[in-house]
Design brief:
The complex is a heterodimer of chains A (about 140) and B (about 290). Chain A has about 140 residues and is mainly beta. In chain A, about 15% of the residues lie in helices and about 45% in strands. In chain B, strands 1, 2, 3, 4 and 5 form a 5-stranded mixed β-sheet that branches. In chain B, strands 6-7 form a two-stranded parallel sheet. Classes of the chains: A mainly beta (about 140), B alpha/beta (about 290).
Chain lengths: ~140, ~290
Amino acid sequence: MTPSPLLSTLIPLVPLAAMAWPLYHVIDQEAFQQKPKVEVKSSPTRRADVSIRAAHPFQEVKITIGEASWSFAPDESLKEIYFPLDDSGNLLVAVSATWPEGTPESALFVEFMPDGMETRSDTVWGLENITGEFEFHWDLTP
Amino acid sequence: MKLLLVALFTLTAHGLDVASLHPLITDMVNQVGVDRVSIVQVGKPGMDVHQFQPKPSDVRSMARSRIIFASGKGLEPYLDDLKDSLQAHQTLVEVGRTVPSQKVSAEDQIYSCCPHHALGGIDPHWWHNVRYMERAVRVIEKALAEADPAGKAIYAANSKAAVARLLQLDRWVKGQVATIPKAKRHLVSSHAAFGYFCKAYGFKATYVQGLSAEGEVSAAQLAESIKTLRTERIPVVFPEVNANPKVLGQIAKQSGSAIADPLIADGSVASYQNMIMANVKNIVTGLRK
């Protein structure tokens, strides 16, 4: 039995009619608004040699700048690091050092030698396990 | 295959081929490379570092060199031309590049070592601060290790030993300077070549032998220098090795200042340590009188 011409025309339109409602929701949306771009200013990265000198043999020394840190093994005294320095020229460096038990009060001398910039240094003192913070500053005006 | 050829070309039986354009740099490359490098010494002791230009034969002698070490900081005005002539396997390393630059101040421009550096540029005599030579040693170590990774540990150990010697030398300089009364730490030299030394070791610097744009000393500048020496009651002036002492002698004579033994300004000697020690001994002897 052959369907009527009207039915034959309407049957292929059934899937389209079924999609009409979801398509309506997709199409009937507010125009996309581009959010204004927020410029993220990253500090330029600089290279530096960091040297340490300890009064007594240490177990570990760790230098931390922001979220980055560098560990010195007992036989290490120099590291090449890359660190961010913003226009203010201020840098906060955290230093922690551990000496073997029984080591008398000791000192750790840290020197920062960034390329093309003056050396900055400081010393932390302590017993067996110490943490210190250095604030270094460089005048970056050309 | 290409890597193998480069390796064979650069690391021959007699070591890594390198070249040096300045005698003090040769000394330091020798200390870090020891017998693992073979150095073509283009800049030899006694050279006039401000007038030197490599001849075609010098360029040919560096053809095998994997690294060409220069002092940098504008000392070698021919470096741009040299860079253009480098081959694919060659690298030019300016060992003074990590050193903080000191500019020749506007008032000191006429006292520059040569017309080339009298243009308000950077003072190229960075080696007079011993701690800066320590930075240079690390640049040399890194360059050698990059060109010859198999020798990395050896270069690191040699560099550490060289830095230890430099730290000892720096302490010695400070100890010697401490014997000069603070009020007498006034270094009067011919040209603006000791700015790094004076800043590092706490001297006031005065220069008396001015240059005109043509590199000549004018009568007005002579008179000004004599006036400065008289006003500041300078007891002693320091001439420079390899510089004509005639004008300085004239200035000293007319101002009543004594002339000390000469200082080595341009580092045109074979041993860095000997140069620093000779200079400091002359300064201490001259100023303690």
